[in-house]
Amino acid sequence: MALSPHSRRDFLNPKTLGRLAATLTGGELAPPQSEGAGEGWLYKFRREAMATRFEILIEVIDADLAPVARAGLDRIDRLEAQLTVYRDTSEVCGLNRSAFEAEVAVEAGLFELLGLSRALWEETEGCFDVAVHPLLVAWGVFKGPRRTPSPEEIAAALEVSGMDKVVLNPERRSVRFSRPGVGINFGAIGKGYALDRVAEEVRAGGLEHFLLHGGHSSVLARGSSTWEAGWLVTVVDPTNWDHPVAKVRLSNEALSTSSERLETLLAGETSHVLDPRTGRPLEGDLFSVTVKTPSAARAEGLSTAFLVMGLDKTLEYCKKHPDVGVLAVRRSPQTDGVEMVHAGIPEHSLEALL
Q: Among 120, 143, 245, 294, which lies 20 to 30 A Cα-Cα from 36?
């Protein structure tokens, strides 16, 4: 998903990014949706962090709160410094180094994120797992180059992977690893967590209506835009970024998409997504999964898990969790094209385009 130059409410494919005439740095006025529109002007603020781009969109009538929006984006820099596995000074790197040798007390927000990650791991029967850093190292996902490890290397990485080897102590707000070599990596949930924290900060500063996105794959909306109820987000066909498959209206909700890479789908190559249960590339039936739920962190984590779980188990999960909606894109059994399957998203919030 990416920002469209034609509709400031919509998220479209990454190809359209290159067509944007102006980059949005310290805060820039974006034009209305269409020529002659009397409303719909927005301010946008951008921050590069977590190897991606974060943006917050606020209404022009809230221009006096622009410092609040910028301060909210500052929070992302602090979160990256805490959560990244690419800086030895981060709290997560310190945890990975020390949590087998001794119990490690962690910051409250980090402990909350670990608790959410454990809950998602349990709910998805291991299809979502942040304790997979050894597997990411084995496959060259961490720092590269990408490689195919031997069966013995995969088995060795699996021995020290998995949330079952992470012990959380709520009373001490501490973490302990049950085996040496275990490692945490929040790559599949960190952007969503950052969006949730930024939203908390800017709302505390007085902003009530805004749209946040991180990496054009996770979106969080609060309140409404001035010209309609909620904020409209467009989901695209992962095999053709120029073709939207649905529009979803968000208000006080988040949306996150996980998908196979376009080159993987077009070439029929091995998936770039690892199944944390097997340590091997995913062999699933889904091209992309978009999840709608109140929390951006939960939406991002579940979109990753559902891609691994497959359609049937995903639909079962949504039946048990009414606050979770899903929109899945897969190859059509009847044609060479794609089809969309959705559940848990109210009709008034969804416009199917397939």
A: 245
Sequence-ordered list of residues with C-beta below 8 angstroms from that of 102, at least 6 positions apart, any chain: 176
Helix crossing, 66-83 with 108-123: angle to 10°? 70
- Answer yes or no: are the C-beta atoms of 331 and 343 closer than 8 Å: no
pLDDT > 70? residue 30? no
Q: Which CATH number fits domain 2-75+190-352: 3.30.300.20, 3.10.520.10, 3.60.15.10, 3.40.50.880?
A: 3.10.520.10
Hey, what are 28's tokens? Answer: 């820039």
27 φ, ψ to 5°? 135, 115
Domain positions in the chain: 2-75+190-352, 91-177
Task: Answer positive or negative: Cα dihedral of 209, 50, 11, 121.
Answer: negative
Q: How far apart are CA 12 and CA 233, in angstroms?
A: 8
Contact 305, 291 (CB under 8 A): no
Indicate the CATH number for domain 91-177: 1.10.3980.10
CB 234 within 8 A of CB 244: yes
Question: What stretch of H or E contains 76?
Answer: helix 66-83
pLDDT digits (tens, 9 = 90+) for 131-190: 999 999 999 999 888 899 999 999 999 999 999 999 999 999 999 999 999 999 999 999
Please tell me the number of Cα atoms within 13 Å of 79 on its side-chain side.
Answer: 28
- Read off the pTM: 0.88
Task: Tokens 């989901």: give the residue.
Answer: 235
Between CA 45 and CA 55 the distance in angstroms is: 5
Q: Residue 242 half-sphere exposure, CB side, CA atoms within 13 Å?
A: 0
